[in-house]
Design a protein that fits this description.
Elements: H1 8-11, E1 13-19, E2 32-33, H2 46-59, E3 65-71, E4 74-75, E5 93-95, E6 97-98, H3 99-108, E7 119-123, E8 130-132, H4 133-143, E9 167-168, H5 171-178, H6 185-195, H7 198-206, H8 209-219, H9 221-227
Parallel strand pairs: 1-3, 2-9, 3-7, 4-6
Antiparallel strand pairs: 5-8
């Protein structure tokens, strides 16, 4: 479509969104990631393989100004607990970026110098936005007045491998062009807290912990894999 436009391949700038999922499982001690690291999606992660295919198509497209930005976990005020959370090992290292900072960064690509283009970048929130998944989950529960995961979730409900996320060793390179490092995990937590109504928080706190535990356990697909002998 770009090439069909008048002088499109030379005139039009193309920003594509890749994903941290392209690098696959990078648990400690190999949790620090750079753009040039091997791409090795987790088993069964077709989302990641399509991202890789799109990125390769862009690199080989012949466009004069293209860029692929591999985004990390985008943290928004609508963060909620879903079954996929149990696919992720508790010791996963995550360098998140807020939705506001990710969006700001993409707009900033419109005002970049020529040496910005024809490259692949990692987009994270920088060292200040590095968390470990266990701490992240615990903070979310504490904000709702539920304490940490103790008594609510067992550690063996969570997968031990085959997911993604990491800490980026080179996310500063993209920030040097876009200046999108503006928020911290604390800002994100406050956004999530602000998005919760008082009635919701009160209702959650009034529920028996056993009921909350049963609800969370019902979302743990990992347990169903074992119960149903889903070896794949």
């Amino acid at each position: 479509a770009v090439k069909r436009e008048p002088d499109g391949a030379n005139r039009i700038k193309f920003t594509s969104i890749g994903s941290v999922a392209e690098i696959g499982d990078r648990l400690p001690p190999i949790h620090m990631v750079r753009v040039g690291d091997p791409l090795k999606p987790s088993v069964g992660d077709f989302y990641a393989t399509t991202k890789m295919a799109a990125e390769r198509a862009l690199i080989e497209s012949g466009l004069k100004r293209w860029v692929s930005i591999r985004q990390t976990y985008i943290a928004t005020a609508q963060a909620k607990m879903e079954p996929i959370m149990f696919h992720q090992p508790l010791n996963t290292h995550i360098e998140l970026v807020t939705g506001e900072d990710a969006g700001y960064g993409l707009v900033q690509t419109l005002e970049t110098p020529e040496d910005f283009w024809c490259r692949v970048y990692n987009m994270g929130g920088g060292p200040a936005c590095r968390v470990v998944f266990l701490d992240y989950v615990s903070n979310m529960l504490k904000m709702q007045g539920l304490g940490g995961i103790e008594g609510l979730m067992d550690v063996n409900w969570f997968a031990l491998r085959n997911f993604h996320c990491c800490w980026y060793d080179d996310s500063h390179v993209l920030n040097s062009y876009l200046g999108h490092w503006r928020h911290t995990p604390e800002d994100h937590y406050q956004d999530v807290l602000g998005a919760m109504s008082e009635s919701f928080k009160k209702k959650i706190q009034e529920l028996p912990r056993s009921a909350i535990r049963d609800f969370l356990k019902s979302m743990a697909e990992t347990l169903k894999w074992i119960e149903n002998n889903e070896t794949e």
